[in-house]
Amino acid sequence: MLSLDIATTFRSILLPGQARAARMAEEDALHDLALDQVLSRMTENAPAAAEAFRTLCADTDQVVYRQEVFRALEREDLRGIVDRFLDRMARAGRYDTASATSRYRYEPELWHLSAVGCYVDAVTTLSGDLVREDAVRGAEGLRALSDYLVAFCATPEFAALAAEAEACRKLVDGLRYNILVRGARVTVADVDGEEDLRAEVLATFARFRTADGPPVSADAYDPGLDHVQAWVLEKVAQVHPAEFARLVRFAQTSRDYRDPTVDRFAGEVWFYLAVLDHLAPLRRAGLPVCYPVVSAESKDLDVRDTFDLALATRIVAGGGTVVPNDLRLTGGERILVVSGPNQGGKSTAARTFGQLHHLAAIGCPVPGSSARVFLCDQVLTEFEREEQLDDLEGRLGAEIVRMHGILESATGRTVLVLNEVFSSTALQDARTLTRDVLERILALDALAVCVTFIDELSRLDERTVSMVSAVDPHDPAVRTFRVERRVADGRAYARALAAVHGLTGEQIARRLAARREGEGDVR
Amino acid sequence: MRVRLMDPDRDFDVDAVEPGSADDLRRDLELDYLWDAMGGGDSFLRTVSRSAILHSVADAEVIRHRQAAFTDCVRNPDAVGELYALAIEALSVERGVLMMPVHGHHPEMSLSRAVRMLTALADRLERLRTLCAQFAPRFASRAFGDMFAVVAAELDDDYLRRLRALVKELGFVQGLLTSAALGRGGGVTGQVLRRGKRENRGLFDRTPLKRPMYSFTIPERDESGFTALGELRARGVMDVADAASQSVDHVMGFFRTLRVELGFLIAARNLQVALEAMGAPVCLPDVGGVRGCAARGLYDPCLALRAGRAPVGNDLDLSDGRLLVITGANHGGKSTFLRALGVAQLMMQAGIFAPGGRFAAPVVGQVLTHWTREEDAELRHGKLDEELSRMSALIDVVQPGDLVLCNESFASTNEAEGSQIAGDVTSALVRAGVRVRFVTHMYDFARAIADGEPGAEFLRAPRDPDGRRSYLLEPGPPLPTSFGVDLYDRVFGTTLARP
Predict the structure, then answer these.
(1) B310 and B348 both lie in a single domain
(2) What ipTM does the predicted assembly reach?
(3) A192/B413 CB distance under 8 A
(4) Interface test with chain A among B211, B223, B229, B415, by most A beta carbons within 10 Å
(5) Chain B neighbours among A 238-257 (CB < 8 Å)?
(6) In percent, how much of chain A has pLDDT > 70?
(7) Interchain contact A511–B (C-beta under 8 A)
(8) N or C: which end of chain B has fewer CB within 10 A?
(9) Is the pLDDT at A211 greater than 80, yes or no?
(10) B267 and B292 both lie in a single domain
(11) How far apart are CA A355 and CA A347, in angstroms?
């Protein structure tokens, strides 16, 4: 509706200027990296954000553009501003829907009035808040948005829309009328200063009140219209004709009130919020998250105290402790070969490696206390596919086909995550196949992580680096059930039994003390 | 309007969830005898008694508040009985009014129910005010005094008249008039119940509204229309209906609480009458009067009620009171005395009298018991294992300031092992600020306590020179022989105890 001639360059909060992002990641890869969990936070209400999460940035400028916005949105005050804006926009959207689907006379016009009021409030508040907000200055995308909004709000069209919406709202809110119900007959008239019977009853009963808090009331209750209320509404329009005429006129002149740029921002900003919301509980649990230094030239990887996003999310939710790791590839090193005992976190390390590169390449913060990451063109994954467990031959065949496809599409800028590849073949075959795959990767000069039980592959040449998962023998969570020879002790059995029940003197003292502390925390 | 006979700050909640230790307490202290006597055949009074005994009060002020109310009750049994009868009669009003599950969901129906209830309750409230005014001079406690004062202040003539008039108006004989505003979507919102103006009535059309007015009528077969109209009316009276229902709840709640709290006093009086009838003395405990514990003629009322006669009482003077170990002969009255201590503590902390001529003790948190259980011997877990897991459960709930009663705990293993565990547990509890009373025949354990716990105090079940038990305990350190020997001697006719 508003034909705007606004001299700003703002188009999208996701990409600077007219830039386009690069390549979309495969669904399989996102699933293997367990990033689809973060993605699912966006797909529902923000398709634009979900697309951005799947699409890798074409250059480091784009990465920086997003990192700046992320950093700004980490500030609580700015986050609050955006949250309130989105909340109002969502409400405006619900009112629009109500207006479009309503059936009774005057109902569409009333919902429309609410929608416009909410939208005007959302836009002007956001504009004013951003101008005053310091955090905006550090982010090119937000500066451009702020400039755009200021110019937009100053247009005469928008000002006129806002003024008339407010005037109509006041009129409608001020309307009062009486309803008298006698049997099936309903009579509507203007109010005439009748006595407040309710107040009298409430005052008289007040001394017998039982519940705390204000009395139950229908005041805040705003039901949808049924046909009886619709008839009442028509009669109210007869009691107050002038006000309703103005309302109808407003609805006709403001039908097409939305600005596409504002709407796009409201969708795209979910990209940032969803990622930050996903990271929030991890940060609260004390896990480090940082903005990686992303380079399109250097293939060095140097990440400290990093962890698997998906696993950490699960562990933190269960109240457990996450064990962080460092990942590093420097100089000519290209491939991490991970081996070691089972349950030692090998796959987790591989997933973390892939996550780091994907997250860094879409401009997101990454798990870790510090990070340098190469800007890759894609992250390709090869994980065991469970649905083919039954048919060994078919399974190996499919794996080889997939591996071929991956190596075909990989470039020198690609990151590959290979987890337990060829594990269903004989050792000698696996050794040969895996060695060949690794050599091809080295020939491409791509980056890779490879989880394998064939640890000699880590000694392929100076470009492969070995990592070994370890199980801590002192971890009390691991039970050994060892039987040891010992001198017999007559009281040993009872004491051991007491210890099993937590009833040695020391255990009791600790239990009581722990409870006291726990209670202290609660209070 | 509050009762507050049992606690100056809150109603007594007879339905409060019982502590997890309740069943052990009942079994170990044989509390059923106590509750039966308090109930006097009335299951309601028994329920109230059980709840009051199990929910120990840890606040000395509240205990004294109840003691004073109880004293008043003993002095004016007839007045208390009359108020109790009125409470029961008022509660029966509910049965006369059609009961439907309407509360809160259908404001108009709950309003009409509330109107009928309030009409009936107004008479009972008037009677309550009359009785309270009549009894007030005869009661001395703050508990009763405050209740009488509240009733007098809140139920004055003028108020009762106004209440009756409004309740009548809420019948809406002239139609239901509300003012309203428009919701966002045009719905009727912000309804306020109004009193129509007489002067707005027309000569022919008596509708009390300002002109012009516009009407419509719901067609006869328009069912959804009548539903919608019903909802419109319902929203118009929602808050009024809620206030009226709350008033009913409040008045009924008052009478319900009155029944519970008077019932408690009546039940305590029942117990006192039963005990005094068999010559067993009672006293009002001295709450927190001593640091340790002092008792004269302390006996187990449950045993008295079971046996139907007054048992031998014991004296006790603990100066420190943190740890008492009772040793000595089997069948020497140790367990009975331990029960007496527990029951007396519970009775004191329910705010009633205690068994014996004098009882003085500090207030404790929970009373917890750990009894050796013969009947559990056959369980899948070994007996010691079972004892240990019960003790572990006790450790899970025990707090500093609680009172733990142990009766031959850890006796299910040999004495060496049992002493080791008992010593560990006892020392840890005492160190954490828990008061412990331990009956044991394990000399090793008792000796270790005597050597290692400076504040520990000891009682002994002695034997008379002729080898017979006196059932009187006396202070004294543990002796190295179990008195089981002389029991053996008596049965076998041997003289092993006195070689």
Answers:
(1) yes
(2) 0.74
(3) no
(4) B229
(5) 238-239
(6) 82
(7) yes
(8) C
(9) no
(10) no
(11) 12
Cβ distance of A503 and B391 shorter than 8 Å = yes
Partners of A227 on chain B (C-beta within 8 Å) are: 224-225, 228
Q: Are residues B262 and B338 in the same domain?
A: no
pLDDT digits (tens, 9 = 90+) for B70-87: 999 999 999 999 999 999
Residue B331 structural domain:
281-492
| Inter-chain residue contact A227 with B184, CB threshold 8 Å | no
Amino acid at residue number A77:
D
- Terminal-to-terminal C-alpha distance of chain A: 57
CATH of the domain at B285: 3.40.50.300
Cross-chain Cβ contact A111/B391 below 8 Å: no
CB contact under 8 A, B189 and A219: yes
| Cα-based distances in Å from A105 to A235, A251, A386 | 11, 13, 58
Terminal alpha carbon distance of chain B:
74
How many other CB atoms sit within 10 Å of the CB of residue A408? 7
Last residue of a domain, one of B276, B294, B329: B276
Query: Could you give the number of structural domains in chain B?
Result: 2
Instruction: Tell if the CB–CB gap between A194 and B196 is shorter than 8 Å.
Output: yes
Domain annotation covers residue B464: yes
Two structure tokens written together for A82: 């955006």
C-alpha R_g of chain B: 32
Residue/partner pairs of B274-280 with CB below 8 Å, 24 or more apart: B274/B37, B274/B40, B274/B305, B275/B37, B275/B301, B275/B304, B275/B305, B275/B310, B275/B355, B278/B304, B278/B308, B278/B309, B278/B310, B279/B309, B279/B310, B280/B304, B280/B310, B280/B311, B280/B355
Considering the domain boundaries, does residue B326 fall inside one? yes
Q: Does the residue B208 lie in any domain?
A: no
One-letter amino acid for residue A379 of the chain: V
| Subunit contact A210:B246, Cβ cutoff 8 A | yes
Question: Over the stretch A81-99, which tens digit does the pLDDT of each residue have?
Answer: 999 999 999 999 999 999 9
Q: Are both B295 and B257 inside the same structural domain?
A: no
Nearest Cα of chain A lies from the Cα of B400 at a distance, in angstroms, of 9
User: Which residue in A197, A494, A511 is closest to B384 by CB distance?
Assistant: A494
Residue with tokens 């046909």: A227
User: Most B CBs within 10 Å: which of A201, A515, A517, as the mutation test of the B interface?
Assistant: A201
Chain A hits for B211, CB-CB cut-off 8 Å, are 189
- Among B162, B189, B197, beta carbon nearest to A194: B197
* B410 vs B427: CA distance, rounded Å: 15
- Is position B241 within any domain? no
pLDDT-based confidence at B378, cuts 50/70/90? Answer: very low
Alpha carbon distance B378, A272 (integer Å): 64
Residue from A114, A145, A90, A150 nearest A262 by CA: A145
pLDDT at A22 over 70: no
Q: Give the best residue of A102, A170, A175, A210 to mutate against chain B (max B CB count within 10 A).
A: A210
Same domain? For B291 and B440 the reply is yes
Instruction: State percent of chain B over pLDDT 90.
Output: 61
Beta bridge partners of A451: A338, A419
Q: Which residue of A has its CA nearest to B251?
A: A208
Are A95 and B166 in contact (CB < 8 Å)? Answer: no
Q: Are residues B255 and B344 in the same domain?
A: no
Q: Do both B258 and B289 map to the same domain?
A: no
**Which residues 6+ apart lie within 8 Å of A168 measured at CB?**
A113, A246, A247, A250
State which residue of chain A sits closest to B153, comparing Cα positions. A207
Please give the mean pLDDT across all residues of chain A.
84
Whether B272 and B370 share a structural domain: no
The Cα–Cα gap between B180 and A194 comes to 12
Q: In chain A, which residues have their Cβ closer than 8 Å to the Cβ of B129?
A: none
Place of tokens 């309804």: B191
Contact B193 A198 (CB under 8 A): yes
Planar angle of CA A245, A249, A254, nearest 5 degrees:
150
